[in-house]
TrEMBL record:
GO terms for biological process: carbohydrate metabolic process; glucosamine catabolic process; N-acetylglucosamine catabolic process; N-acetylneuraminate catabolic process. Keywords: Allosteric enzyme, Carbohydrate metabolism, Hydrolase. The active site is at residues 67, 136, 138, 143. The gene is nagB. The record marks 146, 153, 155-156 as: Part of the allosteric site. One of its GO terms (cellular component) is cytoplasm. It is an enzyme of class 3 (hydrolase). Pathway: Amino-sugar metabolism; N-acetylneuraminate degradation; D-fructose 6-phosphate from N-acetylneuraminate: step 5/5. InterPro entries: Glc/Gal-6P_isomerase, Glucosamine6P_isomerase, Glucosamine6P_isomerase_CS, NagB/RpiA_transferase-like. This is Glucosamine-6-phosphate deaminase. Its EC number is 3.5.99.6. Pfam families: Glucosamine_iso.
């Protein structure tokens, strides 16, 4: 695992956007796995700037979703499909035809999870999977004690994650769904390159457990230690307990 310490979130965003741009130059039809949350926003801003300036052509890129709330209509502004459309697809000039994600409104949620897991493999696999990290060490929505071999499946959110995510729902935890679909840790580990960005002191404990702790299901992100090509980018705050 490679750990890169950058001065701030903006520098982390620029660094990872450049890695994505390089990927698109090498493989224009690359499948980029994207994450939601506040942390990746500087990456998407920097990448969109590169696309607008003509420094990179992302017109053939494909984008894959990491996780999704169960039960939120796709057009709900906080469904991750809507969020990614707003924050990634539109700024990169891509349409929904370039996008793949699980159906959080399917009647057969388990079937939708299996179908999405299979679709990722059939699409040739994810080239670069971007990850954030929860304060409890979760990646995607794989909460602590998720199996390190897990596949895409339905999960129940912990109270802490619902509290953390209430800020996207007018601060009202009651509006945060209880259930989600997430790529499993085993699924995530199949991506060719994993890139985790963590910023701020609030992530320092989770980052220390990820990088220096044992590989253990209590810290799902520690599974990155098992991957042959994993990069952890942290600002000084998130690195403060290393
Ligand atoms: C959610 C997402 C994760 C993300 C995490 C951290 O739980 N499912 O993919 O990494 O939030 O979000 P933030 O970057 O806003 O701290």
């Amino acid at each position: 695992m490679e750990v890169v310490i950058v001065p701030d979130a903006e520098a982390g965003g620029a660094l990872i956007a450049e890695a994505m741009a390089e990927l698109f130059r090498r493989k224009p039809e690359a499948l980029l796995g994207v994450a939601t949350g506040s942390t990746p926003l500087p990456i998407y801003t920097a990448l969109a700037r590169q696309v607008r300036s003509g420094a990179v052509d992302a017109s053939r890129a494909r984008v894959a979703q990491l996780d999704e709330y169960v039960g939120l209509p796709a057009e709900h502004p906080e469904s991750y499909r809507s969020v990614l459309r707003r924050e990634v697809l539109e700024p990169l000039g891509l349409g929904l035809d370039a996008f793949m994600g699980p159906d959080g409104t399917a009647e057969d949620v388990a079937g939708a999870c299996e179908a999405y897991d299979r679709a990722l493999t059939e699409a040739g696999g994810v080239d670069l999977q971007l990850l954030g990290i929860g304060t409890d060490g979760h990646i995607g929505f794989n909460e602590p004690c998720s199996s390190l071999a897990s596949r895409t499946r339905i999960k129940t959110l912990t109270e802490q994650t619902r509290i953390d995510n209430a800020r996207f729902f007018d601060g009202d935890i009651e509006q945060v769904p209880h259930h989600v679909i997430t790529q499993g840790i085993g699924t995530i580990l199949e991506a060719r390159h994993l890139v985790l960005l963590a910023t701020g002191e609030g992530k320092a404990d989770a980052v220390a457990a990820t990088v220096e702790g044992p590989v253990a299901a209590v810290c799902p992100a520690s599974a990155l230690q098992l991957h042959p090509h994993a990069t952890v980018v942290v600002d000084e705050g998130a690195a403060s307990k290393l």
